[in-house]
Amino acid sequence: MSGPAARDAGAGPLIFLVAGEPSGDQLGAHIMAALRAETGGRVRFAGIGGQRMTDEGLDSLFPIDDLAVMGLVEVLPVVFKVYRRVKAAVAAVLRLRPDAVVTIDSPNFTLEISKRLKGRIDAPLVHVVAPSVWAWKPGRARKMAGYLDHLLALLPFEPPYFERHGLATTVIGHPVVEAASGARDPEAFRARHGIPAEAPLICVLPGSRRGEVSRIEPAMAGALALLKAKLPGLHALVPTVPTVSELVRARCAAWPVPATLLEGPGERLEAFAAARAAIAASGTVAVELAVAEVPTVVVYRVAPISALLAHFLLKVDHVSIVNLLLDRAVQPELLQFNCRPEPIARTLEPLMMDETLRAAHLADCREATAMLGRGGDPPSRRAARAILALV
To answer: How far apart are CA 293 and CA 308, in angstroms?
Structure first.
């Protein structure tokens, strides 16, 4: 948005939003739609986001593709680019003087912006998605309380970690419980993509960052080769995002089973409804799959140095949110050395074939997603109300 009059009350409040990766972009888009609904359309937007937020009317200051980096070591090559992006975002906020600044996830990027804005504007600084201080870096909660005005958390057990330091925190629930709503037609999906009606379908999700895909995809491809012998006609569904779509497309071309690459949130949810099971990189997608009731094996691999540091720093027994909520391994986790074709295939096969195991897995998923707000007010509407109350 170029040169809006930040204090034009007649046009409604100006909300400056910042997202740094696809999951934050999706959440930001939902919050923008909810803000528009809550204000009867009398709201304006500026900031940084991806395609989903652009579709909702945001003119992003710059593309977010080069910010989608994860890992303690992997971020180093782009640290100076991120630093420049932070400076550009801060300058834009100081120029526009919005009524609220809402940063979304990607804490290494977004919270740096909030820190630099503290005391320089009179608008509330709100962050959406609490960093996992319950897993590592618990001191971050105290630091955040020093520069944020409000935190919107996704998980029911998170507020005490921040409120003990004086940071007001509201639980809004997990955004995937609203993103995954709606009826699906698996038969029509198969027909549209030319997939035989009898073909077993498995969702394969190697990540939304280039580094993730490069490290995880070979193990997934190897697992498909092993499963192919036991599941005749096996077909892979590969939902992806713009940040890695070309890389994923190139990798899929060499897979041992037919693969259908899918882009866009609608196709993603149709794929979940049609799939018998999934292999997914650890992250938000594991929660999406639980909401869609798709039995899932969670995998991940980071650079060796990152893995070594994580071994000493992490304070939890699980990485999957579903497993953390229930404190048991509902979604099997195959990480680092275990992220290999043989363990993946061996773990995934019974989730596709054993009906008793599948039923227990899906019952656990329903229990976990109810704890994330499924069945209540949409998280984006809760977020919008909290933001507007501060404005």
So the answer is: 33
Measured between its terminal Cα atoms, the distance across the chain in Å is 20
pLDDT at 306: 59
Measured in degrees and rounded to the nearest 5, phi and psi for residue 143 equal -65, -40
Average of per-residue pLDDT across 35-41: 97
Q: Are both 385 and 349 inside the same structural domain?
A: no
DSSP 8-state code for residue 72: T
Which has the closest alpha carbon to 289: 239, 248, 223?
A: 239
Token pair listed for 99 = 């009524």
Nearest CA to 156 among 328, 371, 327? 371
CA–CA distance, 120 with 131 (Å, rounded to integer)? 24
Is residue 3 one of the residues assigned to a domain?
no
Q: What is the mean pLDDT of the chain?
A: 89
Cβ count within 10 A of residue 38: 17
Task: Check whether residue 133 and residue 232 sit in a common domain.
Answer: no
Please write the tens of the pLDDT for every residue from 232-264: 999 999 999 888 999 999 999 999 999 999 998
Predicted confidence band of residue 297 (pLDDT cuts 50, 70, 90) = very high
Question: Are residues 295 and 168 located together in one domain of the fold?
Answer: no
Name the pLDDT band for 74 (thresholds 50, 70, 90): very low
46: β partners: 16
Same domain, 206 and 325: yes
β-partners of residue 280 are: 205, 298
Backbone dihedral region of 112: left (phi > 0), alpha (psi from -120 to 50 degrees) or beta? alpha
**Residues 172, 152: contact at Cβ < 8 Å?**
yes
CATH number at residue 235: 3.40.50.2000
| pLDDT recorded at residue 7 | 46
Does the residue 4 lie in any domain?
A: no
Q: In this predicted structure, which of 69-78, 135-144, 280-289, 315-324 has the lowest mean pLDDT?
A: 69-78
Give me the domain span that covers residue 261: 186-371
Confidence of residue 30 (pLDDT cuts 50, 70, 90): very high
Q: Both 354 and 329 in a single domain? A: yes
